[in-house]
What does this fold into?
Amino acid sequence: VSNHAAGRFELNMAQGVSPAELEALYAQLAPAVFRRARRLLGRDADAWDAVQEVFVQVLRAGPKFRSEARPMTWVWRITTNICLNQLRSRRLREAQLEGFEEGTNTMGATDARQLLKKWMAELDERELAVATLLYLDGLTQDETADVLGLSRKTIGREVEVLREKLTKLGALPKAAAEAAP
Amino acid sequence: VSEHLSPVELEEAAAGLPMVAGAHLEGCAQCKARVDELVALSDGLRVQVQFKARLASVLQQAAEKPIARMDPETGELTISQKKAQEEAGRSAAVPLWKYLMPALALAASVLAFIFWPPPQAGDDLRLKGAATLRVVGVDGRDIEKAKPGQTVELAVGAAGHPQGLVVAVDASGEIDVLWPRGATLSSKVPAGAGAHLEPAFEVTPGSMKLFAFFASGPFDANVAQARVQAAVDKAKAEGKSPLQAEVQAGETGSVASVLLKVEP
It folds into this structure.
C-alpha cells in the first residue's frame, strides 16, 4: 500500500461508517465472521484476531461496504482472504491446521486439512480462495463468484483451470472429481 | 449444487439479513434448524469478553485516544468497555471523522504494538538483543551507498522476535513493503543476529530509508506502513525529508532502520 492508498483510506474514513453504525454491523455480522475464521484458523484467539481485522477493513471500505447488496458475501471474502493470509504466514504448521473440527459439505475434517495443506503449497492466492470457497465451504460457483466479486464467466473459466491443476496434483476433492465440471 | 442453503445464506439468515433464498427457509425444516442453531451460537458469542474487546479495539482505531487495552493473557480490558461505548455514542452523535483523520495514522501506530498477538506455541527459543537492520552486498559487507542495478541483501537481528517485515520509504515519501515483497502480513524471520532475508533485491534509482519491524506474532503490513507514514508526515511537518523519518519501537515490538543512499 503506497502513501496514495493511505490517502484513499482517509477519504473513505471521512465519508464512511460511523462508530455507531460499525457497532451495529459488528453485532450483526461478527458472529458469522468468527465462525468462518475459526473454521479456517482452528483457534479462538486467531479467529478473534481475524474478526478485528475484518471490521477494520469495514471501516476502511466505508461507503463501498455500505453500498454492498449482500454485505455477508463481502465480509465472507475479506474473512477468507485474511484467514488464508494468516495460514500462509504460519508456514503450514500442523498445529494451526487442526481446526477442522467439523466436516465440510463434501469431506471430513482430516481430508479437508490435508487438502488445504496441499493447496497452500501449490496454489496462488486467487486459486486458493476459489478452492476454499468451492470445495471446503461448499459454495456454488455462482456464490463463489459473488463472494469474490467475479463474473460468472470468469469464475467458470478459473474453476476449469483450477480443476485441471488440482487433478494433476491429485488434490481435487473426491466429491468434486466425481461431479460434472 | 446443494438443495439446501449454502453456508453464506445460512449466516445471512442467522444475522437477520435480507436473503435471496428466503422462501426456501420457510419450507425447509433442516435449514431452519441450522439457522436456529447459528442464532443461538451467535447469542453465545455476543456475551464473550473477546467479542466486546475486539469491537472496542476496532472503535479505538477510529478514535483520537486509546479507549481500551486488552491483556493478551486474560482478555481483560484495562479500561472499561463502557467507556468505549460512550465514545462510540458520542462519535455517532457528532460527525467527528474529519477531526479524527489527523490522528488516524498515530492511532494505528499505537495499536500496532498494543494488539500484536502473543508468541505462538512451538516458536523456537530465541535470544534477545537489540533489533538491527543492515544492507549488505553479495560479499557480505555492509553497504551505505549503492548504485542502481546493484544486488544487495538485507541482514537483520530480530531482537528475539520471530516475525518481521521491512518497509521502505523513498525521498518523495512513497512507502512500500520491501520484505516479504508485496506482503500483506509479516513473515517468520530467520534466527540469528545477522540473518539474511531472501531474496536479494536489485537497487533502483533513488535513496531510501528502510524500517524493519519485529514482533512476537504475525502482524498486518498496513499497520507497519501506517507507522512509517506517520513518521514521514511528522518529518515533513518539521521541514525534513522523508528519509529522515524516525519510527520509535512500540511496547511489545522492536524497530530498526537504515538509510541506503543510492547514487548514479
